[in-house]
Amino acid sequence: MDCVQIVDPIGIVGGLAVLWKRDLAVRFIRSSSFFIEMEIKDDDSNHVWRLINLYASSTDSVRKSQWEELIGYWKQCSEDWVVWGDFNDILWADEKQGGRTREAWSLKAFGDFVTELEAVDLGYSGYPFTWTNRRGGDGMVKERLDRVLVSPGWRLQYDRAKVQNLFAVGSDHAALLVDTNPPKFSGPRQFRFDKRWVDDPDCYDVICKGWQETIRGSNMFKVFSKVRNTRRELQTELQCQKENK
Question: Which CATH superfamily is domain 3-179 in?
């Protein structure tokens, strides 16, 4: 890598580094003790967006103030954005395995932060936990502390973007690989909704069930998930009808 932007640690706590190649359209914006913000220009689409590389505090009170700082800033930001890195918290109890069970109230601050931003969690492929305390037996704790959150506009611009959780090497955290333009695979033609399906009782039931499904996450993530799930169920139903004719 030709370029680097660094935030020094305080003692043995914190520290960040962003590295990139010189031929990329990347511009440093600002940094603080817990993040580095860059401006990214996509030369293919001419789309400009902000990238925040984050290392949140492990102290609840400090982390809450960090969320408030980011929310205040993003409310004034007109560009699409991505926030990724170590959030040092989880959204759902099942994102932790081992150790003390997280109570619902303890997840509220991070959940409120994601909701306030109207952020979309890009999800992941690969191993679900990105951090481990590296202890054996009953003492082992695993959590999904690292994730990628994006603005709704960014998600629409990069609708095929994917996140892969890589194996942890030389660290107690796994690396995240974000591909904004994964290769296209040949397959069925693009799915389009036909309003006549509403008049079909079986399809109508599938649509109702899909939109009544309980989805956890921000409002935008709920919409994305319900559209995706309803599409899959409709495809299955239409295939069954075709085979039964």
Answer: Endonuclease/exonuclease/phosphatase (3.60.10.10)
